[in-house]
Design goal:
The chain is mainly alpha-helical. It contains 2 helices and no strands. The protein has one domain. The longest helix has 17 residues.
């Protein structure tokens, strides 16, 4: 499974906002890592169309 960072500016903006929300929510680093990896996988699967 591809967990690399998708190369789409709009996806990257959503991804950055998601990371910020997770950090502000006070989640543990391992949880943030797991959630972020899942978002990257979903982004790759749907060719960065996550609207």
């Amino acid at each position: 499974m591809d967990t690399s960072m998708p190369n789409d500016p709009q996806f990257n903006e959503y991804y950055r906002k998601h990371l910020q929300y997770l950090k502000l929510a006070g989640l543990q680093p391992k949880t943030i890592e797991a959630y972020s990896r899942a978002i990257r996988r979903i982004g790759n699967y749907f060719d960065c169309r996550v609207e």
